[in-house]
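Predict the 3D structure for this chain.
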Amino acid sequence: MVMAFTRRFRSILVLQLTVLLLCSIVLRSLSSPIPLRSIGDSPSAYEVLQGFNFPIGLLPKGVTGYDLNESNGRFSAYLNGSCSFSLEGSYNLKYKSTIKGYISNGKLTSLEGVSVKLFWFWVDIVEVSRKGDALDFSVGIASAGFPLDNFEECPQCGCGLDCVNGHVKKLRTNPFLYEASSSS
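Done. Predicted structure below.
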């Protein structure tokens, strides 16, 4: 009788631990800003960015997939459609449904598919470089720097970084990274 009780107690304990483990996995996946993956799956596009020393906030939420040629760094990231939003009220950004370029540690080059509105014109962002705790965005003839912590979270298409309150998050700039011409 004692052995039957011990076996039953052990079975209940294993069942409770299994349920607890499953609940913690589900709760973690619901609160994670980066999609979780199973063992053996490819990393998400956001995890790939982190692997090359970039923050996840360079890409908007909703990347559906990506391709990466690990030998030369050529990549493509895919969204369900084009995406646009405002940051700080004066920075309007537009992403095409496919974003392409080359990625290496701390450097995105030959970018295609990301534009920023300057005054009345849309210009392509062609390069992003990490310089310490800042990111330098180049449009070819000029560049601007922003602190890395501006990109800790992914913007959302349509509303940017504050989709709940309707307020636009103000980006801090780094005036020491402004350049009159690109110096790659």
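The longest strand covers residues 91-104.
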